Structure formats: structure tokens, C-alpha cells
Amino acid sequence: MPDLILSGSNYARLMEGLVVTLQVLAGSVILGTLLSLIFGIGRLSTRAWVRRGSSVYVEFARGASAIILLFWMFYALPILFGIRGWSPMLAGILALGMNMGAYGAEIVRGAVLSVPKGQSEAAVALNLTNTQRLRHIVLPQAVPVILPPYGNLVIEVMKGTALVSLITLSDLAFEVQKLRVNSVVLSDSATTPVLYLNVLIIYFILAFLIDRVFKLAERKSAARFGVAPQRAKKAGKPAAGVGVTG
Predict the structure, then answer these.
(1) How far is CA 22 from the centre of its chain?
(2) What is the C-alpha R_g of the chain?
(3) Helix pair 8-42, 191-224: axis angle to 10 deg
(4) What angle do CA 178, 167, 175 make, to 5 degrees?
(5) Angle at 19 (CA atoms; ends 194, 107), nearest 5 degrees
(6) Most buried of 34, 78, 147, 220 (most Cβ within 10 A)?
(7) Tens-digit pLDDT profile for residues 178-218
(8) Residue 192 buriedness (CB in 10 A; 0-12 / 13-18 / 19+)
(9) Residues 121-128: contacts with CB within 8 Å, 24+ apart?
(10) What is the pLDDT of residues 139-184, one digit of tens each?
């Protein structure tokens, strides 16, 4: 049975790839969160063109294959617009962020609809603007409902970052593939299962840490508004709706 511990140089290569993976993940989550809020709220707009435009984006980005979207961003977009030196990092973030934003928009929409209608009516009675109502009344109460499914979505995006290895970005998946090829060249086939076992553990640790962070945020958010943690697990189960103008 081969040793389950890799050499220091191999771990150094994997850590270099992990840094790139985390950069892609961070950029994708930031972009995806912005798109989730914009289009999730947009789907509840009283303005038909905003609502329909948001629906078109959500249905397109949610239905498109992430890998095809990635290839389109990296190979097709530069050709169409004559872009030189297009960054694979940026292409990966755009593709994964757009895909995440479509799923996240549905989470946001369902969470906003779960806020009791009376809360919105009380904000109107206080003469708050639509922006103030969203910022101070609706979205804070929707956060406990958003967090559980959103944490799962972030974990899925983290696993999806392995796709960027297909556009020459040296992430964790790309580095382990190079190490595997080197081990084959050196006729050390026993290294291959050990390599992938170590990478599986790294991805598991990342997923575990993300899950812990979101569970902590969920508890704090639920405690702030006096919401039972179980309620936060019912995201996507809309209750009385809250119309949004914008």
C-alpha cells in the first residue's frame, strides 16, 4: 500500500493551485451575489420590462451548461469582440458568477416573498421609499431564509471551480493533473491514487469550512430577528408576497 503522504514539493504545487481556486471562488461568489440580488429583486419588480428582463437572464444562465458558458467566455468572446490577452481567470469568474447568479436570484426571490406582507405594508405606512424598505425591512428579514441554500450554492460553485482547469488556468485540479502526468512519466503509478485522495480531502475541507461559516451566520442572523433556525431551511417556499418597485 503506498504512503498516503505526498512529498513537500507536491504539496507546494497543490497549495499554489489552491490559491488560484480560492481566487476564482471569491470572484465568482462576489459576482454571483451581486447578480443574485439584482435579478432576484428584479423578478419581483412591478415594472414589466424589469421583471421580464430579469426572468430572461435567470432562465438563460440557469439553463446553460456551465462548461459551455466557460468555453464561450474564454474562446468565443475574445473572437467576437477582438479582445487580446483575455484572462482565463476573468473568464472563469464571469462564467461561474453568471451561473451562480441565476440560481441565487431564485433563492433571493423566494426569501423576499417569505417576508410577511404586513412588514412591507408597515414600511409603506412609515413613508419609507422602496429602497429603504428593501434595505432596512425586507432584506434583513430575508437573510435567515437565504443563508442555508446559499451556503449550499457556494459549495457547488467551489466544486465547479475545477472546470477552469479546462481553459489552462492553474487551479487545484490543473496542478493535480500535471503531477499525475509527471508520475506516469516517472513510472510511479502508485502516486496517482494518493494524489487524488489528497485533493479529495482538500476539497472536502473547503466545503466543510464554507458550511461551518454559513451555519454560524445563519444562527446569528436567526437570533437577531428571533427566527427559529428551522425556518431558515424552508427557503424557496414562498409565503405572502412582497411587491418590489424598481
Answers:
(1) 12
(2) 21
(3) 40
(4) 20
(5) 100
(6) 147
(7) 988 887 655 565 578 888 999 999 999 999 999 999 999 99
(8) middle
(9) none
(10) 888 999 999 999 999 999 999 999 999 998 999 999 999 988 887 6
Helix ranges, 43-134 (H): 48-63, 66-71, 77-81, 88-114, 117-125, 130-132
pTM of the model: 0.85
Decide if 94 contacts 68 (C-beta within 8 A).
Answer: no
The residue behind cell 469568474 is 93
Q: If we measure between CA atoms, which residue out of 235, 171, 240 comes closest to residue 40?
A: 235
Cell matching residue 46: 412591478
Q: Nearest CA to 21 among 184, 212, 157?
A: 157
Q: 128 pLDDT band (50/70/90 cuts)?
A: confident
User: What's the grid cell of residue 152?
Assistant: 449550499
Q: What is the mean pLDDT of residues 217-229?
A: 75
- Contact indicator for 33, 104 with CB cutoff of 8 Å: yes
Q: What SS3 class is residue 19?
A: helix
Query: What grid cell was written down for 195?
Result: 494524489
* Grid cell 417556499 in the structure block, residue: 237
Burial class (CB in 10 A: 0-12, 13-18, 19+), 238: middle
